[in-house]
C-alpha cells in the first residue's frame, strides 16, 4: 500500500459533464481512488482537475488513457485541467495532449469538451 494519499471527488457541472477533482499523488496504489470516484458516472464527458496532484506515474497515465477510451466508447471524451508543471510535462512527454485536451483551467477544459 502506498504511503501517499489521494482524494477524488466528482461534481456534475453542466448536463453531461462531470469534474473529477484529484488531490495528492497518483501512482499504482492510488489509481483505484480515481476509478472508484468515476465508476458509476453515467456521463460521457469528464474534466480531470489535476491542480492538486503533485505526482503522476505511468500507472496514472495509463488510467487516464483507459478513462478516455471508456468515455470515447460512449461518444465522449476526457479533458485535463490545471495540471502543475511537473504533471503537465509528464502528460506531454507521453503525448497525451494528442489524445485529449490539456487546459490551464476547468472552465477552459469544459469549453474544449463542448466546442466542436
UniProtKB/TrEMBL annotation:
InterPro entries: Anti-sigma_ant, STAS_dom, STAS_dom_sf. PROSITE patterns: STAS. Signal peptide: none annotated. Pfam families: STAS. Residues 7-113 form the STAS domain. GO terms for molecular function: anti-sigma factor antagonist activity. It comes from the Bacteria. Belongs to the anti-sigma-factor antagonist family. This is Anti-sigma factor antagonist. It comes from Actinoplanes missouriensis (strain ATCC 14538 / DSM 43046 / CBS 188.64 / JCM 3121 / NBRC 102363 / NCIMB 12654 / NRRL B-3342 / UNCC 431).
Amino acid at each position: 500500500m502506498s504511503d501517499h494519499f489521494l482524494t477524488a471527488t466528482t461534481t456534475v457541472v453542466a448536463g453531461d459533464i462531470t469534474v473529477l477533482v484529484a488531490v495528492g499523488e497518483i501512482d499504482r496504489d492510488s489509481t483505484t481512488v480515481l476509478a472508484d470516484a468515476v465508476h458509476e458516472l453515467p456521463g460521457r464527458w469528464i474534466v480531470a482537475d489535476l491542480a492538486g496532484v503533485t505526482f503522476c506515474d505511468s500507472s496514472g497515465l495509463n488510467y487516464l488513457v483507459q478513462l478516455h477510451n471508456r468515455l470515447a466508447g460512449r461518444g465522449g471524451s476526457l479533458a485535463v485541467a490545471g495540471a502543475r508543471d511537473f504533471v503537465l510535462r509528464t502528460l506531454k512527454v507521453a503525448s497525451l495532449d494528442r489524445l485529449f485536451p490539456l487546459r490551464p483551467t476547468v472552465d477552459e477544459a469544459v469549453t474544449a469538451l463542448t466546442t466542436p
